[in-house]
Amino acid sequence: MSFLVVDIGNTRLKWGLYDRCEAGATLQSHGAVYLEQIESLAEQAWADLPAPTAMLGCAVAGQAVRRRAEEQLDVWDLRPRWVVSEERSCGVVNGYEHPSRLGSDRWAAIIGARGRVLDQGAPRPALVVMVGTAVTVDAVSADGRFLGGLILPGFGLMLKALESGTAGLHVPTGDIKRFPTNTSDALMSGGTYAIAGAIERMHRHVIEECGAEPALFMTGGAAVKLAPITPLGFEVLDMLIFEGLLRIAQERA
């Protein structure tokens, strides 16, 4: 059998095809399209794939976008199943004030990270950073409690806000510098250090709350931008949400 996972974000739809529905499954194929290109999936990216026997996805882009993706699943006559954040799943307890309002992509990433921690050895806290259109920084205790998290604008949103609200500033092609000496570098560096600062502050909060340093996992298309500037040890996991979806699907099975 093969199993399809789908992650519909604010900008792109990401998908992966695995050889089975369980943690540690082998990724056979994967890809991504911008939301404007969803209608091309059945005839292009998915056209030559072996038919999956089941799927599970998470979607934060809204019902209309999700329905467009579901129409593409008709190529396999596949019943769509979507994650909604729950009070508990896969050994993680959801500490959100209203658990179902936690973004399903965050919930899947948290579960994926918790599984990674346990696979690596003794339980320890974790910090889960997703760097996309928005940035989220989520904390998990050593016993699997989701403690809470931050949401802040991603690189693009920050720069667009400055461009629209400030005379004479335009979205730059600058570099990240310790001491920027031109406007383009200053804008790019400011946004990057703002995100890095939020991560470092939450990292400190977790140590204060849990009494131990957390494992730090980063995912998302822009995660690599943070690599050169943060002193924290971290692991970049491109498929962290997929890993969480596999664990959720395995538990449901």
Considering the chains and any ligands shown, give keywords for the structure.
single chain; 253 residues; Nucleotidyltransferase, domain 5; 2 domains; 4-stranded mixed β-sheet; 5 helices; 11 strands; 32% helix
Short note summarizing the structure:
Keywords: ATP-binding, Coenzyme A biosynthesis, Cytoplasm, Kinase, Nucleotide-binding, Potassium, Transferase. The chain is of the alpha/beta class and 253 residues long. It contains 5 helices and 11 strands, in the order E-E-E-E-H-E-E-H-E-E-E-H-H-E-E-H.
Mean pLDDT, to the nearest integer, reads 93
The name of the CATH superfamily of the largest domain reads: ATPase, nucleotide binding domain
Helix amount: 25-40%
Order of helices and strands: EEEEHEEHEEEHHEEH
CATH class group of the largest domain:
Alpha Beta
Distance between the termini: 14 Å
Number of strands: 11
Q: Treating each run of at least 4 consecutive H or I residues as one helix, how many helices?
A: 5
CATH domain topology of the largest domain? Nucleotidyltransferase, domain 5
Strand order of the largest sheet: 5-6-9-8-7-10-11
Shape: globular
Radius of gyration: 19 Å
Tell me the major beta sheet.
7 strands, mixed
Query: What structural category characterises the helix and strand content?
Result: alpha/beta
Task: Give the tally of structural domains.
Answer: 2
CATH architecture of the largest domain: 2-Layer Sandwich
Oligomer: single chain
Assess the beta-strand content as a share of residues: 15-25%
